[in-house]
């Protein structure tokens, strides 16, 4: 709704504004032109043409995924050795970045496909004493990461044979079979094979 104006110029300007916003009909616009010489004008009613009414835009097709999870490590090479030799991860990238004097080190679980936007692990060397305090304790003692497998007992025995320490023995849960192991720094991982059907989140910790 537009207001009354005693000043003709103000009325005209107001009508022009309404027209520019798409809320004044062509009929009202013609009336405005006829009244340009008038000293006063009646109240203005700005009407939204049906075809100009705003509608909600269609939903966007959004595709998000977790690219990397950063794991703070003490040294690159010892972390690479543990994850590739003991857990069977693949070294995806190891690139030196001279401007920051650090390496971009990315590893991926066996059989995963980083090229298909699978989540990878970024091994990030602690650069300050504050960061070093979190090496091995990024989750405050809780399970931090979850390694899904298609054959629990195969990987459980393989990990143990490679020297991986399990701090919670295997158990059958409603969602599948799970055990908790630690990496070389003490970060806790779930090794889990989910049951068929819906995959509820395992209870962390």
Written overview of the protein:
The chain is 23% helix and 27% strand. It has 205 residues and is α/β, with parallel strands linked by helices. The strands form 2 sheets. It has a 4-stranded mixed β-sheet with strand order 1-4-3-2, covered by helices on one side. Strands 5-8-7-6 form a 4-stranded mixed β-sheet, covered by helices on one side. The longest helix has 13 residues, at 8-20. The radius of gyration is 32 Å and the shape is globular. The two termini are 60 Å apart. Residues 1-8 and 19-24 have low confidence and may be disordered.
Q: How would you characterize the largest beta sheet?
A: 4 strands, mixed
Proportion of residues in β-strands: 25-35%
Number of DSSP helices? 5
Major β-sheet strand ordering: 1-4-3-2
User: Rg from C-alpha positions?
Assistant: 32 Å
Which blocks of ≥5 consecutive residues have pLDDT under 50?
1-8, 19-24
Instruction: Give the helices and strands as they follow along the chain.
Output: HHEHEEEHEHEEE
As a percent range, the share of helical residues equals 10-25%
Q: Which outline best applies?
A: globular
Average the pLDDT over all residues and give the rounded result: 81
Note the gap between the termini: 60 Å
Q: Structural class from helices and strands?
A: alpha/beta
By DSSP, the count of extended strands is 8
